[in-house]
């Protein structure tokens, strides 16, 4: 069976910039527990939470915030399109619908993420079209 595991990591540059990253890992597993175990091994083996120096020589510290969720894929292998993750959030008095939608839609562009880059081609950034 195929599962997707969502993990959330936090990166902090020594100058104070912070980013939160949501990652979805796709794995073949026998159960939800097996999928989480494989995700944990992947994070460890790939150094997902290792610190590094960015292109300016500043220390970037990464940490695992959470293995936030696990989703079992139900589509047939013959399907052209597969849903690899789904999450439902219900608005309530603590979290308004507009806030939830804004959080789902807010994505960073390459300039937002520049302090977190290990290697960067500044010429590529100058060629990018601005986002609306």
Explain this structure to me?
This protein is an alpha+beta fold and 132 residues long. It has one domain. 26% of the residues lie in helices and 30% in strands. It has a 4-stranded antiparallel sheet with strand order 2-1-4-3. The longest helix is centred in the first third of the chain and has 15 residues, at 32-46.
Summarize the structure.
It contains four helices and four strands.
Keywords:
single chain; about 130 residues; alpha+beta; four-stranded antiparallel β-sheet; 4 helices; about 25% helix
As residue ranges, the low-confidence spans are none
Q: What is the share of helical residues?
A: 25-40%
SSE ordering: EEHEEHHH
Q: How many helices? A: 4
Topology:
Layout: E1 2-13, E2 18-28, H1 32-46, E3 52-53, E4 59-72, H2 97-105, H3 110-113, H4 122-127
